[in-house]
Amino acid sequence: MKQANKKAWQRRAMAALLAASAMVPASVQAKDTGEQDRWAAIEARLDKIEARIDGIEQRVETGQATQQDIATAREIRGVVADTRAETQAVSAKTDSLEQRVAAVEKKTPGSGFNVGSTNISIGGYVKLDAISERTSGGQLAGNAITRDFLLPSTIPVGGTASGWDTDFNARQSRIIIKTSTPVGDKAVGTLLEMDFMVTDGGDERVSNSYTPRMRQAYITYDGWLFGQAWSTFQNVGALPDSLDFVGTMPGTVFVRQPMIRYAKNGFSVAVEQPETTITTATGGRILPGDDSMPDVVVRYDKSGLAIAGIVRQLHASSLVLPTGSDSAFGYGVSISGKVPLGESSDFRFMGTVGQGLGRYLGANIVNDAAIDANGKLDPITTYSGFAAFQHKWSPKLRSTLAGSYFKADNPILFTGTSPTDTVWNALANIIYSPVPKLDVGIEYMYAERENEAGLSGNLQKVQVSAKYSF
Question: What pTM does this model have?
Fold first, then answer.
């Protein structure tokens, strides 16, 4: 809330208290001098609620709030305004107002509990995935992350078809800890998010125990974000409702990394972690670790749509390149969004094109650059996108149909023919929610990859999942 608005609320509240005091008989005022303390307590609680809503609105500016957060914040803002207006009534209404404030506090997103002036909330979900999949070009290794969710670049090609392999796991379960501390008319927020995906430590024989990992960890204040979060180049709000970890990974910008970001009025500007990935002459991957400039991203969001641009400096030193250090520019643009189609359906999409964007797409399907005949960096051009349609059959039943596509122009004279040329997938699911926040569903996915040598392979997957969010 802006400072002017806050002061206006304070003036109105004081006027209301004075008006109410004038309406109450002197004997009543004398009888219960603690009544003013009760009013002050209500006002203080309303202030804290508004501070939490301010925190949600700041997360909206940084693209971290969900649509449900936004809608709920707007609703509660109206309830708070109405409740403050009712302070003009006589003190006999104190009890009913306190009950109403308590109900609003309970409904406020991230209400959690307070430690001093800091509000702490804990959320996340527990999820079980039962997956059975078959690959036509060779078998995926047992107990590997490639069996837990679709990684496009790992679909086997050119080998012998496997049978159906079945695995159960609960590794996608996650926990999110948020804090919000009022500072003047603003709030300092933090978020720490962890799950158990793509980590070591477990086995399928006895324990199935896996090491937790950090997904996101950041600080927010007045439109600023400092820490690790989803890349500003990625629009998380456009992702389809899938049982697979991502669903349309081949056509999706997918990166979490450290950054500094500022967002205001729909515009976001960020400097983010640089990391150049290079394809060798035999199709392998080199991570030089020689980057000197951050990746720069600019993005604009409005009405569920987003357009983002990125500029990168790709760099490698003489330790990697045979003729000395070299730099090249990578760049790209991504357009994405979620468009309502009536009251029960929506359309989600993303389209991305550029050079030197390999690690940003589909969990690094191809690399950013190759090394040409002169020992210089040659950025790789890529094209990708997805589309998804969701329909709600009833308040408890919904389905999604989605597909995605990726294409790379690898310079095969310098990379060989083993890197991925194209990969695509399609999926369909049905999800039932018998009670709020509990989802039980089934999903079928088909994916196919072809490398630059023309070898191809497909993956078929049937997944049953149960998920409860808290």
Answer: 0.77
